[in-house]
Amino acid sequence: MHLTRRALLGTVLATPALAQAWPSHSIRLIVPFAAGGAADSAARAITPKMAERLGQGFVVENRTGAGGSLGGAAVAASAPDGYTLLWDASSHLVNPAVMKSLSFDYATAFTPISQVVTFPGVLAVKTDFPAQSVAEFIALAKARPGAISVGTQGNATAGHLGLLQFSRLAGIEVIHVPYRGGADAARDLAAGSVDGVFITTVSSGPVVDAGRGRFLAVTTLARVPSRPSVPTLAESGFPGFDSNEWAAFFAPAGLDPAIRVRLYEALSFALADAGVQQRLAQIGAVPVGSAPERFARFCAEGRVAMAQLVREANIRLE
Known about the structure:
Elements: H1 5-13, H2 17-21, E1 27-31, H3 38-54, E2 58-62, H4 69-76, E3 84-89, H5 91-98, E4 110-119, E5 121-126, H6 134-143, E6 149-152, H7 158-170, E7 175-178, H8 182-191, E8 196-200, H9 201-209, E9 213-218, E10 245-252, H10 257-271, H11 274-282, E11 286-287, H12 292-313
Helix pairs in contact: 1-10, 3-10, 5-12, 8-9
């Protein structure tokens, strides 16, 4: 964690009475993704321990649709009293660039709390694909421009944008095959219908473990603990490469800073719990728990970078 518990507690003890009285009833957490998915499961793994710390429970409400923006709109229109929060993903930074008729501004409608977990991405190929390494994949792609197919979990997703970044840095051209989710992309990888995928390790892992695919590299800065033998793209000739799906807490803009500190302290408490860590590992999530100020900078910088990438690649959502 990026703040010491002593510093956090000192800030909490100095907060006004209003913040000290919070929370006096349950907190609604809007998850703009389907129940049972990795993002939803991570939220449900973490919030019970946070509730233990705060003395009030969380009510998780799945409000899906429009790339997560329907759930975002509901939170943006809520009072900034700490009783309605958003559990969002990397689409939080991409949606402003690909959706032109939003009823709110992602940049100003929310108070970032913390990037809670990441879901490491991976470049994997089908079993009989000739390349055994990232270097060999690039060499083959350069020899056969526009002939290698790579699936992702959909247009404008973390996988799609990561694939674009990788392709540009490597100077290669591949065929992007968008799916409705990582599971569908993994299924076609196992069938040999696509040459490779750029999806999460949790989606592709079962295919690789069954001998129907092969990992070439993970997209995180550091190697993934559950796949320690798989090199990173950063190690494979792309220093600093870091492109992954993630999940994070946001509140409506105007949240009392003292409540934000208390939320972050409760999150830090939850992520330090061995049981929570075990449940997150089971769904392929890696704990992060970035401090609020650091996460706010991450969002501001990421929003600019994603807008540029979307514009240059001419990505559109129908």
